[in-house]
Amino acid sequence: MQADQESVGKVVSQVGFQESIAPVPKDPERFRPKRAAVLICIFEGDDGELRVILTKRSSRLSTHSGEVSLPGGKAEEDDKDDGMTATREAEEEIGLDPSLVDVVTSLEPFLSKHLLRVIPVIGILKDRKAFNPTPNPAEVEAVFDAPLEMFLKDENRRSEEREWLGEKYLIHYFDYRTGDKDYMIWGLTAGILIRAASVTYERPAAFIEQCPKFKYPKMVEKHNCMP
Questions:
Q1: pTM confidence score
Q2: What sequence ranges are listed for the domain Nudix hydrolase (predicted)?
Q3: Close Cβ partners of 197 (under 8 Å, ≥ 6 residues apart)
Q4: pLDDT per residue over 152-168, tens digit each?
C-alpha cells in the first residue's frame, strides 16, 4: 500500500503478514499502526461451494488501479467495532446492505508494510439474490466472486520471493477466470484469503504460506510453515 493510498483509507497492499509473525520496525516511534478492517463476505454458490465476494479497483485510480481487493477501509471514530467498519465500507464501495450480512468472527490482524493493522472480518451473506452489486464508480470497476477453497489449492497459483526489513518471504498470485474476465489476486488480499480459507475449512494450504523468519507463533505447524 502506498502512503497516499492509506490516507484515503483503502486496504490494498503488496505486503502484509499476520501480526504475530510480522516484523516490527526498530524505531518504536514508527510503530503506531492505524486500524482498518476488510470484509470476507461468504455465501453458498449454486453448486454448494463457498464463495467470497471481491472487487476490482477502478482503472482511473492513481494508485493500485485495476487491482483486486476485499471491501474494506480504515476505522472511523463512530465505528463500534471491526464488523461495523468492514460492513460500512462494503456498503460504500459495492452497495452491500449490512443487514444482509451476519458477522461471525474476526481473524488475527494483519500488519501491512506501511503499518496499517488490518482486521479480516468474516461475514455470511444471508441472501445472495437480495444483493444487487452497485459499485461506487470512483473506487470500484467490478464486483465478482470466487471459490474460497481455491486459496488452499496449488492450482492457478504462483509465488515469488521478496524481502522486507532484511527477511525473505513469499508473495502469492492466484489467477482466476470467470466468464470472459481474468483476475489476478495477490499480495495482502491473497494472504488474508489463504488464512480465511484455512480457518473455514480447518486445514492448511497445499503450499507454504509467507513464512518469514520473524517471530513464529507457538502453533506454527498449523500454519503449514517450515522453519
A1: 0.82
A2: 33-189
A3: 148, 149, 150, 151, 152, 205
A4: 999 999 999 887 767 77
